[in-house]
Write a structure and sequence with these properties.
The protein is α/β, with parallel strands linked by helices and 287 residues long. The chain has nine helices and 13 strands. It folds into two domains: 132 residues, Quinone Oxidoreductase, Chain A, domain 1, CATH 3.90.180; 124 residues, NAD(P)-binding Rossmann-like Domain (Rossmann fold, 3-Layer(aba) Sandwich), CATH 3.40.50.720. The strands form three sheets. It has a six-stranded parallel β-sheet, with helices on both faces.
Length: 287
């Protein structure tokens, strides 16, 4: 399938190639994995799409049959045939090639710009909140980092019925988080995160979603957890997790990692956005 790339989000992951955290699967490589557009050309055996259809691409080209695909962890596919913008050319181009099974229809109520960020910034956050850390109604959730993923984590955690605390050093992002449903916000450049979170929650948060991946933010995220609390890392850098095993064991903490999403989860966020349950937010410095 050839898709005319009408919009492609700029993900912070793309910068990891410049930083040396990631290596391209081939050189030269066209980056860009948050793609929305129209079908320009369909293969002869493709029946479910035709030229002109509006679509969003799921950027993992998976086998569909391995243990990971069958268990809903398609981003870990054991027989991946392509990873758009990582091992095969991506959407920072006029056209992009993708298998039909990696495409989802984009309703006309969602713009191409919004559709592009649904492919990663929203669906990856949905995966972290709903599938990995499994936020439940009544829980307290700290969203650490309110970039392109964090602002959607606020909304998804609220949909789960959680009390949400947004943390960021940029006042404009804190204001946006409150607009999108955050019950409380904390600015680490002006406030002590641990004291503020414990003042709001009592013992600490049930869940922390960490979208930054720096030593200080990781340290604070662990400290903000109550006993039996759950922390999921979505953001990352070259920094290491600054803790030993003892506090994890004595407080029975759960430390988890989350990677991207499944095609099913992408279809879910498209549905939520089309019904205005989630507002896709386009930021100039999206994560």
């Amino acid at each position: 399938m050839w898709v005319a790339s009408s919009a492609c989000g700029v993900c912070h992951t793309d910068l990891h190639f410049l930083e040396g955290l990631l290596e391209p699967g081939k050189i030269p490589l066209t980056l860009g994995h948050e793609v929305a557009g129209e079908i320009a050309e369909a293969g002869e055996r493709v029946k479910e799409f035709q030229k002109g259809d509006r679509v969003v691409t799921h950027f993992y080209f998976t086998c569909g049959d391995c243990y990971y695909c069958q268990s809903g962890s398609e981003s870990l596919c054991a027989r991946l045939t392509g990873h758009m913008g990582f091992t095969v050319d991506g959407g920072y181009a006029e056209y992009v090639k993708a298998p039909a099974r990696s495409l989802s229809r984009l309703p006309r109520v969602i713009s191409f710009d919004e559709g592009g960020i649904l492919a990663d910034a929203v669906s990856s956050t949905f995966h972290a909140v709903r599938s990995v850390v499994q936020v439940r109604a009544g829980e307290s959730v700290v969203v650490y980092g309110l970039g392109g993923l964090g602002v959607h984590a606020v909304q998804i955690a609220r949909l789960c019925g959680a009390r949400v605390i947004g943390v960021d050093i940029v006042e404009e992002k804190l204001a946006m988080a409150r607009e999108l449903g955050a019950d409380d916000t904390v600015n680490p450049s002006k406030q002590d995160v641990l004291n503020e979170v414990k003042g709001i929650t009592g013992e600490g948060a049930d869940v922390v979603l960490e979208f930054v991946g720096l030593s200080d933010t990781m340290k604070n995220s662990i400290a903000c957890l109550r006993r039996k609390g759950r922390l999921v890392f979505v953001g990352y850098s070259q920094d290491r997790i600054p803790t030993g095993a003892q506090p994890l064991v004595t407080n029975a903490l759960q430390i988890l990692g989350s990677r991207a999403s499944s095609r099913y989860e992408l279809s879910k966020v498209i549905s939520l956005a089309s019904r205005h349950r989630i507002r896709p937010v386009i930021l100039e410095d999206s994560d």
